[in-house]
Amino acid sequence: MSDPFDALRAPVVPEDPDAAFAAALRARLERAVLDPRGTTVSSTPTDTAAFAWPPTVTPYIGVPDGLRAIEWYVEVFAAERRGEPYVMPDGTVGHAEIGIGDAVLMLAGGAPGTSGDGPPGDIPRFSIHVQVPDVDATVERAVAAGAELVRAPGDQPYGRTGVIRDPFGHQWIMLTPPGRATRTRHGDIGYVTIGVPDTQRAKDFYAAVLGWRFSAGSVEDGWQAEGPTPPVGMWGGADAPEVQLCYRVADITAAVARVRAQGGEAAEPERKPYGQLAECTDDQGIRFQLWEPADG
Q1: Which of 107, 136, 131 is nearest to 181 (CA)?
Q2: Distance of alpha carbon 77 from alpha carbon 91, whole angstroms
Q3: Which residues make Cβ contacts (< 8 Å) with residue 17, sequence separation at least 6?
Q4: Do 19-41+49-176 and 189-293 come out as alike in CATH topology?
Q5: Which of 31, 66, 240, 259 is most buried as measured by Cβ atoms within 10 A of its Cβ?
C-alpha cells in the first residue's frame, strides 16, 4: 500500500546558496584548513564574543579585495578578526574590523570579478573614523569651517554617525557611540577591593606612595580611591589584608555556571544599580566577584 502522504511531498530542488553566506563560509573553511592554529566554524554566539569599542581615532581603508586583505593582515601582522566581515550579496565586504596590537583597523572592499573590485559606494581608498561627544555639533562646526557634508548625522545601531570631507580632501566618519558602548572586554578587571585592618594607615600609605586621594564610600569604613584605573575601593576591619578582584563578564549567568563547573563556589547574582554582581570563590579559596554591567 502506498503512503498517502507521497502525494503531498514536494520534489527536492537544489538552490544556489546566498552569495554573502557562501563567501563568508568559504573564507572560514579556508582558515580552518590552512591555518595551523585552526578556527571555529560554528557561528553560534558566546558570552565571550563582546568586542572592545575601537580607539577614538581609527583608520578606515578601502581595498580592492576585502576578504583577501583580511587574510593578508592576519598572516603578516598576526591581526585578530573582530567578528565576521559583513559580506554583501555580490561578495564585496561592506564592513570588517581587525585588531592589530591595541589598535583597530576598519576596511571595506570588493572581490575579484565583482562589480565591487574597488572600495564600494562612497568609501574612498582611506577614511578616518573618529569618536566625538556630539556628532551633530561637530558636523555643524566642520561645515561652518569649510568642510563638505558627505552624509548628514543619523542614528545607527552602533551609535549616531555623520560623514564630512575636510577642506584638504580627507574624509572623516564621525561617531558618537551609544551609552552601552565600552572599551572593556569580557574578563577584564572592572574593580579592585582592598580589605585592610586599619584604613587610615592604608590611606596614608597609598597617598604617599601613589598620590591617591580618598572619598567616603557607601558602607561603614569604606573608601573610594580617586583616580586609579580600574577603580579601587577599600574597606576596614579585615582580620587580615586581602585584595579581591571583580571581573567584567558579558553573561553573568553563564559565568557563574562555569565557576561551579570548575569546582569553585558562586552565589546567585544580585542586581545592583550598576549591574549584576556575584560573590565567588575559586577552587583554591581565593575570593572574587563577577560583574555584568547594566546596559548603558
Answers
A1: 131
A2: 24
A3: 25
A4: yes
A5: 66
Choose among 116, 126, 123, 29: nearest CA to 71.
29
Residue type for position 23? A
Domain segments of the chain as ranges? 19-41+49-176, 189-293
Euclidean distance between CA atoms 140 and 132, whole angstroms: 13
> Which residues have C-beta within 8 Å of that of residue 200, sequence separation ≥ 6?
none
State pLDDT tens for residues 191-246: 999 999 999 999 999 999 999 999 998 889 999 999 898 899 999 999 999 999 99
Q: How many Å apart are CA 61 and CA 86, to the nearest integer?
A: 15
Three cell numbers, residue 36: 595551523
- pTM for this entry: 0.52
* CATH number for region 189-293: 3.10.180.10
State which H helix or E strand residue 190 sits in. strand 189-196
The single-letter code of the amino acid at 11 is P
Neighbour-count burial for 175-206, b at 16+ CB within 10 Å, e otherwise: bbbeeeebeeebeeebbbbbbbeebeebbeeb
Architecture of domain 19-41+49-176: Roll (3.10)
Rounded Cα distance between 77 and 71, Å, is 10
Q: Which residues contact 255 (CB under 8 A, 6 or more apart)?
A: 47, 249, 278, 290, 292
